[in-house]
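Section 5: illustrative case.
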């Protein structure tokens, strides 16, 4: 695993930065990529084939992160604080928005007490 990281860590980092345009988010992706590689090490056929696997996982994680970020931004734009409202009213407005969103979450996905 150390050899894999030393060989491809910088390449994975550069790919993640190129896709995300955010160094901190890219570092998180690199950690997740190599955590997944550690969990899948028995399935990785070898260093040569691992390179394409690492790049594919990196790309998929980055694109998922971008989609989630866009989805979060749309939700906040729709349900977030509204300009001109006092801070207390914005907090109540946000609480209502969260409750509304949670109503659509299936019961088996909710944490106990949610």
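Designed sequence:
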């Amino acid at each position: 695993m150390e050899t894999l990281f030393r060989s491809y860590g910088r390449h994975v980092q550069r790919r993640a930065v190129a896709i995300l345009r955010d160094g901190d988010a890219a570092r998180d992706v690199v950690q997740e990529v190599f955590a997944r590689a550690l969990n899948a090490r028995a399935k990785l056929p070898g260093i040569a084939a691992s390179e394409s696997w690492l790049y594919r996982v990196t790309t998929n994680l980055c694109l998922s992160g971008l989609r989630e970020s866009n989805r979060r931004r749309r939700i906040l734009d729709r349900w977030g604080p509204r300009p001109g409202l006092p801070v207390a009213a914005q907090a109540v407005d946000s609480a209502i928005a969260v409750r509304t969103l949670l109503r659509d979450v299936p019961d088996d996905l909710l944490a106990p007490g949610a």
